[in-house]
């Protein structure tokens, strides 16, 4: 009698019946274990017999399992490759931040001149917080991500180094021809010569008046 063919066997639904001479054998399907009459699902995820990638999540199913790559990786779950979010533009770094790919993720670091967590970056006002390197005789102007230094009037240089301009020596003063030019730190003074009056820029000669007396006739 072929018990398998006439379905008089008592094999489990998840078992294969094999007819033998005068009897039959029940063997649990792959993914199940037992004596064939009783078959229980094998949890490959729990017992470590799965072949999921180290960067994949194993999920047990009835008689089998599935593998899904974890976030930051792509593949079929058996093979998982790191996703370069920086290269493919799926990162959320700020426009003024540098994206660096890491294994399974990425980092965002604000560019120089900006402060924040890399996802949000705010311009640093170096002029206001005193982190600029402008000269004491220069004006600091904040810019987007940086700053500029400009020597104040009466000084020359690149703003980081400023040197006093000697207007008297280089002839850029506006003292009168009848005045003395004296250089000062960042400027100059004009002083009218003796015998002249004025502010040094304008000098006028002092007229002499002579007292006289009429002699008697």
From TrEMBL:
InterPro entries: EGF (IPR000742), EGF-like_Ca-bd_dom (IPR001881), EGF-type_Asp/Asn_hydroxyl_site (IPR000152), EGF_Ca-bd_CS (IPR018097), Growth_fac_rcpt_cys_sf (IPR009030), NELL2-like_EGF (IPR024731), NOTCH1_EGF-like (IPR049883). The lineage of its organism: Eukaryota, Metazoa, Chordata, Cephalochordata, Leptocardii. Residues 1-40, 41-81, 82-122, 123-163, 164-204 form the EGF-like domain. SUPFAM superfamilies: Growth factor receptor domain. Keywords: Disulfide bond, EGF-like domain, Repeat, Signal. The keyword Transmembrane helix does not apply. It holds the Pfam family EGF_3. It comes from Branchiostoma floridae. GO terms for molecular function: calcium ion binding. Transmembrane segments: none annotated. It comes from the Eukaryota. This is EGF-like domain-containing protein. The keyword Signal applies.
């Amino acid at each position: 009698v072929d018990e398998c063919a006439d379905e008089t066997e008592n094999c489990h639904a998840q078992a294969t019946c094999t007819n033998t001479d005068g009897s039959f054998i029940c063997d649990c399907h792959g993914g199940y274990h037992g004596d064939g009459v009783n078959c229980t699902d094998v949890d490959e995820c729990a017992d470590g017999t799965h072949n999921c990638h180290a960067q994949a999540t194993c999920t047990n199913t009835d008689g089998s399992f599935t593998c899904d790559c974890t976030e930051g990786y792509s593949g079929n779950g058996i093979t998982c490759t790191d996703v370069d979010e920086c290269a493919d533009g799926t990162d959320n770094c700020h426009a003024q931040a540098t994206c660096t790919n890491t294994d399974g993720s990425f980092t965002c670091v604000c560019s120089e001149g900006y402060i924040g967590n890399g996802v949000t970056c705010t311009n640093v006002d170096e002029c206001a917080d005193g982190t600029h390197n402008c000269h004491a005789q220069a004006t600091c102007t904040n810019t987007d991500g940086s700053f500029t230094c400009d020597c104040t009037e009466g000084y020359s240089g690149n703003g980081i180094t400023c040197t006093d301009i000697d207007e008297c020596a280089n002839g850029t003063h506006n003292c009168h021809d009848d005045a003395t030019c004296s250089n000062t730190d960042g400027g100059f003074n004009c002083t009218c010569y003796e015998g002249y009056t004025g502010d040094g820029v304008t000098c006028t000669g002092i007229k002499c008046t002579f007292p006289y007396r009429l002699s008697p006739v």
